[in-house]
Design brief:
The protein is an alpha/beta fold. The protein has a single domain, classed as Rossmann fold, CATH 3.40.50.2300. The chain is built from five helices and four strands; from the N terminus they run βαβααβαβα. The protein has a four-stranded parallel sheet with strand order 2-1-3-4, with helices on one face. The protein starts with 5 loop residues before the first strand and ends with a helix. The relative contact order is 0.23.
């Protein structure tokens, strides 16, 4: 994987918002032929993807980036082209790379469609910004 083209999405459990964001980002990036790729991570990962996120992504016809949530590492942050977080990051991680906070996105567990729509709207803007840099 080329880290210079990797976007890292982070949520606390690595099982909902970051998974939804990474899946939709990868679809949008592929459609645009941007060469960018996203992964999802958690600061305190769950054992599996949240049921609402899994059901919503399946209904949207999207694949998961990872089959089970993965813990965020310093290498993930240091090697990323961009980091978007839905939660607080440890200070040591936040100091390594610029981090964009999207912590006001509604919970996937309460309303998948509302959370997805908010995330996808931000993803379009993010992709445009990233493509303009490359």
């Amino acid at each position: 994987m080329n880290h210079s083209l990797t976007i890292v999405f982070v949520c606390e459990h690595g099982s909902a918002k970051s998974v939804v964001a990474a899946a939709h980002f990868n679809q949008l990036a592929a459609e645009r032929g941007s060469g960018l790729r996203a992964v999802s991570r958690g600061t305190d990962p769950d054992a599996e993807i949240a049921p609402n996120a899994e059901a919503g992504l399946r209904a949207d016809g999207l694949a998961f980036v990872e089959r089970s949530p993965a813990r965020l590492t310093l290498a993930d942050v240091a090697g990323a082209a961009h980091v978007v977080t839905f939660c607080e990051l440890p200070a040591s991680y936040a100091a390594v790379a610029p981090v964009e906070r999207w912590d006001d996105v509604p919970p996937v567990s309460e309303d998948y469609a509302k959370a997805r729509d908010e995330i996808v709207e931000r993803l379009s803007r993010l992709l445009e910004e990233l493509e303009a840099r490359n």
